[in-house]
Description:
CYTH-like_dom_sf, VTC_sf, VTC_domain
Amino acid sequence: MVLMTALADKRVDLASSQARAALEAAVIGREPISLEDVISEAALQTRVDKKFLLTPEEFTALSERLGDQFKIMQIDGRRTFRYESVYFDTEDYDQYRAHRQGRRRRYKVRSRTYADTGLSMFEIKTKGLRGATVKHRVEQDLDTAGELTKENREFLESVLRSEYGQEAPQLQPVLDSAYRRATFVNPIDGERLTCDVELEYAHGEAKVDGPDLIVVETKSADGRGVSDQALAELGIREVSMSKYCIGIALLNPQLPANRWSRLLQQSFVPDPALR
């Protein structure tokens, strides 16, 4: 797998990761919820997503405000998990440009592997009515994760014809990404809160790490969940951020990134060697 090859020698010093420490502290005392229950009770495939970028201190305050209403997804005793993804785009980054320009008909194509469990999925995320995100996915063989196989290509073509009435373009791997995630779940209404730390991006020989912050994404039916309200009460504003687009912008400075310029300048510090 491309990502595993590119990042196999990456080791994070936990003592230097305050974000990781804050995340681990927030999940340790919560009641667990199994993956099976998450899928059956809280699998929002059509949802409203909002992203936030929090300092470790802000994240701790958020966790305390959520109370015990949210459980933590746990698998085989683990509560944080490493996610590894390979994103596909055209040679001229058409989907990156579509996102930057805010086109209504846009999508992301990726291969995602849950490194701690060995599960691998091929996914297409499309924009539905009123800006809702719709995730289409199919399980894939771990040995071919990161490849646009014949089966994956057929699935992609089916989704794009159904959603947008268009043919699939020629795609290629353009970005490897990895991070560690914990998932908070409200089993009452299916609301979820994903919390990502230790972002890593790579493509070819180029590599860059994200900041020591927590990327929080709320996923609810209407965008007004308990976690959204808690973040608003803490004065934390939503950010326009796509982990995919941020990674592409960091590793490809020749591409326009005006939509995320302020966020990049304030929170992401690329390696000068990549410039």
